[in-house]
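Hey, quick one: can you model this chain's 3D structure?
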Amino acid sequence: MFDIKNIIEPKTLEEAIKLKGEKPRFKVIAGGTDVLIKLRHGSWEGLDLLSIKNLNELDFISKQEDGTIEIGAMSSFAKVHRSELVDGNLKALSEGAVSMGGPQIRNMATIGGNVCNGAVSADSAPSLFAFNAKVKLVSSKGERVVPITEFYEGPGKVKINEDEILVSILIDKKDYDGAKSHYIKYCNRKAMDISMLGVAAVAKVRDGKFEEVRIALGVAAPVPVRCLEAEAFALGKAVTEETIKAIGKEAVKAAKARDSWRASKAYREHLIEELTLRALRKLVEESGE
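Sure thing. Here's the predicted structure for all 289 residues.
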């Protein structure tokens, strides 16, 4: 059924890094929910796999001394959603995690795999973009940390070297502390569908004004995008219905929507404006302003 030539299952991260350096052609597989679909459809043939599913050292969610929240690459979507640390500080990411597939998929699919897959429809991506997340990559040559906004290269493509493994995702305290967040996924149907559009909003509201707003979109361009024009427009503005509507209109400027069999360009742009508006209303309500 699956055209797999070889599969290696290292027992430690150190071993995995060594093997990836020696066998760069081997494709890393985590939960396998995306890789197996591509194999089944014939997108990949004669594949060599390096499975990291047994690396429990990458299955964690923790807070560092400086307040940085670190999520191990092997953390499942179910674990991300159930984490009190995530739900209490990164609500949009928790909401994105529970919107992904059904229970069986969420128990298998990992956040690291979701990011490395590079899909513009990835349910974790908009929230991670809105939280200014960074990815930690390691190889036998060392470690590097890359902003997630620079990690996505194109549809299904990320900037990871052949000898590297993504080990965790980092979110600084300054990017979530005192902020409210919300994620909205829009689909053609409610039952385990791929996102037609995803909107994540993060906002800090103080004294009736938007102190900071971050908005990210999925499936609005070839890669997830931040709505920089809308964010700049919102800064310091009074929290009113008129302001929120205006921010929604500004958010459309970041999109590079196109017509497809799933939705027209016009419909996607309408969704961006409307869902941004709804997300911000929710944040304002939760902030008590």
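One thing worth noting: The radius of gyration is 19 Å.
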